[in-house]
Every structure is written in C-alpha cells, then in structure tokens.
C-alpha cells in the first residue's frame, strides 16, 4: 500500500482508473454547468420564478429511476459494464444536445424541458448503477473505498467550478452554451472508456438472464444491515438533497440576488462537499457509525441554514452542510459495495441509486410546493427535521432490537457500541 501521505491518491496508481477519473471529471463539469443553466432557464425565462415548476423538473429527472432500477441492475450484472456505460453516455449526450438545439433556435417551451428531464432520467437509471459498480472492476477491492472517495472528489471538484462558471456564462451569453458544453462533455467519458485496457479489468461473473431481477431483490431482502443504510440514504436523498431548489428559491426570493450569485452558492457548497470527498479517500473502513454521525451533522447544519439572516451567512453555512452530506453518501456507497457479493453488485447498486435519487420525485414537488405556499425557509426546515429524525430513528431501532448500548462515564465522551451480524456492516464507536 502507498505511504499514508499518498493514501488519498492510491487509486491513481491504476492506469485504467486514471482514464476513468479524467473522463468523469470532464463529464461532471458539463453536468454541473447545465444544471445551473437549466434551473435559470425554468425560473426566469419559462416561468415567473416558479419553484413548483423547478420541483417538477427535478422530480422528472429522477422519476424513472426507481421504476427501472431492478431491471437496470439486472442489465448491468448481465452485460459488459464498460459497453453499457458507452451506450448510456452517448444517449445522454443526445438529450443534452437536443435541448440545446431548442434553446438555440428560440423554440424551447417548459414542456420540452419536462420531456428531456424524464428521458435523461430514464437513461440515468442504467448509467448510474453501471458507473458505480464498474469502479469495483477498475480497481482492486482494497482500493475501492479510496476510488469511491476520488469519484466524489471528481464530482465535487466539478461542482466547485461548474456553478460559478455557469453563472458567468448565463449572465454573458445566455443559457444555450451551458447545454452545449454538457452535450459535448459526455464524449470525454466515452473516449476514456475506449482507452482502458480490457486485460487489466476485474469483471464480476455474469448472471443468468431469467430471474436475475427477483434474485437480486431476494438477496437484498436478506440483508437487514444494507436495508438500514438504504433507509438513511433514502431520507437524505428525498428530503435533504434538494439544494437545487433550496439555493434557487433562497437566492431569488429571500435574498433577491441574480444569476451569478445563485451559481456561486453551488460553488461555495462544493467547498464542503469536496472536503468530505477528500476525507473519504483516506477512509479504509466505512462504518454505520460514520454515516449516523454525518447525518446528524447534516441535520444540524441545515437547521442553521433555515434561519440564515442574509445571503453571506447562508453561503457560508452551505460548507458544513455539503461536507456532512458528502460524508454520508461516500461512506454509504463504499460500505454497500464492499459488503455486497460481486455477482449482485450491479443490482444492489441499482437499488441504492434508485433509493437515493428515486426519492426525489416524492420529495422535490413537496419541497417546491412548500417553498411556494409557505416560504423557501420552510422547505429547508423540512430537510433538517426529516434527516435528524431518520438518524435518531435508526439509533432507537438498534437500542430496541440489536443490543446497542450507551455508556456514559463522567469526564469521558459518550461511548456507543453495537455490532451487526458477522461479515455484515459493523458499527462501533469509542
């Protein structure tokens, strides 16, 4: 293993992973640029600052994911994951370029954005589990937590640059270029896949076609340790990770700022998420303890966001919120992959992504509606309360059912100990 100071970059020693990382970084940059541009298009050009319309767009992006997840996972486990990714990336490029063409010709309407959001979401239902589970074929098992952390670093490094750049582009030349950049960025990832050496990959055994979907669901049903993690991920994804709506409505309605300031919020939040991703690259043993502590931190930092008195305070408070959210996501992702049998990994990760992203069609319209009927602050408060209750609920579950013991000694920090069944996810804290 590399020396400790180089541990966070350990996966870069693998040639195939270097290509994977670079291609994903460029693609992620395009995604974040488009995301800000598309939100601004809906809020200011196609509607009169309608958070409900923005919530519908967000929901449609994820609506197909939970529906298609079991089938997508079976496809990913049956076919070559690299080829699946090449196809999905090509299709996603087509949707981005199609929406760009409508904007460039001045013919775009709100229903067009709805349609493209739904179609891209359906493609993403196959792309996400393929991308997540493919990482375990690119690097050795010992490097998987590091690779997951570096993937998050790539995503959030792009998030650090993309929103601010998108804000400048929108202010200078309009929404169209943001969509064009995203469409072209997918080809960088396709090129990276083509440059990988097949002989250096570690493919999982292919699964049979018939019954693969139900077999994967039965496997997951028999893993209560994984189900607990999926519950926490669902609560975070459904009610907590709606910053696409929070930032847009708080920026425009509460603080009254423009496109550049709105885009800057995403960049500022990315400082925290990037920090969480870098921390994850050094974590070799992802545990439920880390997930619960980070989720509690997210709930508290989001509660502070609710009462931010001005734009600057809100922007600063996005940093810890981003840090804790990313810590939950990277730890849960690595823990689920490491504790899942290789032949089931595609199907389990499909359900994982469906739980995390597929909850958005439930949460986003509610969050958008609350923001419009009550206030944007009310929608942020929902994120804090729901994730906090989820963390406390899981703690209560272990106290009642799995022998969790709380040990409080004078002058010493709280000590919590519990262990899930052997070879399952372990939880311990000192």
Short synopsis of the structure:
This protein is an all-alpha fold and 430 residues long. It is 76% helix and 3% strand.
Explain what you see:
This protein has 430 residues and is an all-alpha fold. 76% of the residues lie in helices and 3% in strands. It contains 15 helices and three strands. The chain has helices spanning 15-46, 51-78, 81-104, 110-138, 144-173, 176-195, 212-221, 224-240, 243-254, 259-281, 288-306, 311-338, 345-358, 360-373, 376-401; strands at residues 405-407, 415-419, 426-428. The chain has a three-stranded antiparallel beta sheet with strand order 1-2-3, with no helix packed on it. The chain starts with 14 loop residues before the first helix and ends with a strand. The model is unreliable at 1-5, 404-424 and 426-430 (pLDDT under 50).
